[in-house]
Design goal:
The protein has 325 residues and is of the alpha/beta class. It has a single domain (3-313), classed as TIM Barrel (Alpha-Beta Barrel). The chain has eleven helices and nine strands. The chain has helices at 33-36, 45-58, 76-86, 103-112, 126-133, 138-150, 170-179, 207-223, 249-252, 294-300, 310-313; strands spanning 16-19, 62-65, 90-95, 116-121, 155-162, 184-189, 227-230, 254-258, 262-265. It has a nine-stranded mixed beta sheet with strand order 7-6-5-4-3-2-1-8-9. Strand 8 (254-258) and strand 9 (262-265) form a beta hairpin.
Length: 325
């Protein structure tokens, strides 16, 4: 393809709504917003229902229910039932999986309308996983949840938070969980955006360490019949052959709704809307690239970034993929 074949990003119609009714959680994961937000900052059930209805009026076809930990809410099942009754096609629950280790709870969620689950994967090593979660026993419950969910006809995905502690095992994480029935994997670079008062800079790996492991993990996913997506790597960090794994935040058309009236498009968030340094201005992929996250640049600087020449773009699709697969 040529540069003229790939149009620059345009705001997409709202197709997904990510609803975070509250930030209460049964884990205390390092770097997670729920650890610095108030667990008492919660939507009441009536507000949740209003947003579900509003999402449908905006044209949203799919619901992404997140948190905090959404399974802790007393109206969790009622929210799933309401989403199904309102006509949401895909009802995805973002979860640490701990409560889904109980078969009866998983069955009730499926019966209420949940048809997708996105699990948070940290490590195959229980000590590393539990340490990053700051929750003893969470790895054991996650693995049990994978067993429970895999036999219920759900689409099960995995979010892999890439840190200095697990970057070396990304390919093995993908191989293991793909063999356990997961069909898609998202790679997130550890974020300092919501670190609170803790100094977690030591956990942020360099792109130079992430990319080789991520490429091997993407290959492992494809070999297993699964798909993979990288949410925080600029175009210059990945070989062009892997640009299809770049996440197209604009194309997803996702509206995020948090407690306290915080509403924004995903592509405008501090996690997805990166910064552009001086070298980016001469890059041929500039109009498709989201830049590099400011918190990463604060830790490691911009020395790894470079401007791509026009010849490096030709024959490749720089638009990336939308999480609608």
């Amino acid at each position: 393809m040529t540069l003229n074949d790939a149009l620059p990003p345009r705001p997409a119609a709202v197709r997904w709504i990510e609803l975070s009714p509250g930030f209460a959680c049964n884990c205390r994961c390092l770097g997670c917003h729920s650890c610095s937000a108030s667990s008492t900052d919660q939507m009441d059930p009536a507000e949740v229902l209003r947003w579900l209805r509003h999402g449908r009026r905006l044209g949203a076809q799919h619901l992404w229910l997140s948190g905090g930990e959404p399974t802790l809410r007393k109206d969790f099942l009622a929210t799933l039932r309401a989403a199904r009754q309102l006509g949401y096609q895909r009802v995805k629950v973002q979860t640490n999986g701990m409560l889904f280790s109980y078969e009866e709870f998983a069955d009730r969620a499926c019966a209420a309308g949940m048809n997708e689950v996105n699990l948070l994967l940290k490590s195959r090593d229980p000590k590393v996983h539990d340490g990053l979660n700051r929750t003893p026993g969470s790895h054991r419950l996650l693995d049990r949840a994978v067993e429970v969910l895999s036999g219920r006809g759900l689409r099960v995905e995995g979010d892999i938070l890439v840190t200095i502690r697990n970057v070396h095992e990304l390919p093995e994480l993908v191989r293991h969980y793909a063999a356990s029935g997961l069909v898609h994997f998202n790679f997130w670079l550890f974020s300092l955006v919501d670190q609170g008062d803790a100094d977690l800079r030591r956990l942020v790996p360099r792109l130079a360490d992430c990319v080789p492991a991520m490429i091997e993990a993407i290959d492992a996913a494809h070999a297993a019949g699964a798909t993979a997506c990288s949410l925080n790597t600029p175009h210059c960090a990945l070989p062009p052959a892997y640009w299809g794994a770049q996440f197209d935040a604009v194309g997803m058309g996702l509206l995020v709704v948090n407690p306290g009236g915080q509403v924004f498009r995903l592509e405008t968030s501090s996690i997805e809307q990166g910064s552009y340094v001086e070298v980016c201005q001469g890059c041929a992929a500039r109009r498709w690239c989201h830049g590099m996250r400011a918190d990463y640049l604060d830790v490691h600087g911009a020395g790894e970034l470079r401007a791509l020449a026009p010849a490096e773009i030709v024959g490749h699709d720089p638009r990336g993929s939308v999480l609608d697969i």
